Amino acid sequence: MAIIAQRNWRWCSKCNGLWYAAASANPTGVCPTGGGHTSGGSGDYALYADPDGAFSTTVMAQRNWRWCSKCNGLWYSAASANLTGACPAGNGHTKSGSGDYALFGDSDGNLAD
Questions:
Q1: Which H, E and C letters describe the chain, residue by residue?
Q2: How many Å from the N-terminal Cα to the C-terminal Cα in the chain?
Q3: What is the pLDDT along the chain (113 residues), one digit of tens a residue?
Q4: Domain range list for the chain
Q5: CA 4 from centre of chain
Q6: What is the pTM for the complete model shown?
Q7: Sheet architecture: strand order including 4-11
Q8: How many other CB atoms are found less than 10 A from the CB of residue 95?
Q9: Half-sphere exposure of 26 (CA within 13 A, CB side)
């Protein structure tokens, strides 16, 4: 079973959002509160992808979370009302270059049974 994790996601204490801190073009991204995001007080978070669909049946995953290369933020790209959301770098978010991330909960505490 292949479960792929991507590290270097950080929490911004200014906007309370997640952003990808390892983007080479703009590692601090664009924070909705102004300037770049800040990683002070943040852990190193990992987002997961499940390319072969083999998460345990107890894993409740919500796919369609995307990285925006304009602001480095994470947004839900399957919202029926507004598929691109409001990007602090202007206009809507873009999913160009993004993976399809899954945020999940695990009802029994065992990701891979």
A1: CCCEEEEEEEECCCCCCEEECCCCCCCCCCCCCCCCCCCCCCCCEEEEECCCCCCCCCEEEEEEEEECCCCCEEEECCCCCCCCCCCCCCCCCCCCCCCCEEEEEECCCCCCC
A2: 10
A3: 566 788 899 999 999 999 999 988 888 999 999 999 999 999 898 888 766 666 666 667 777 889 999 999 999 888 877 788 889 999 999 999 888 888 766 556 565 55
A4: 1-113
A5: 14
A6: 0.73
A7: 18-20, 4-11, 45-49, 101-106, 59-67, 74-76
A8: 18
A9: 14
Pick the closest to residue 72 from 34, 36, 33 (CA basis): 36
Q: Are 17 and 10 in contact (CB under 8 A)?
A: no
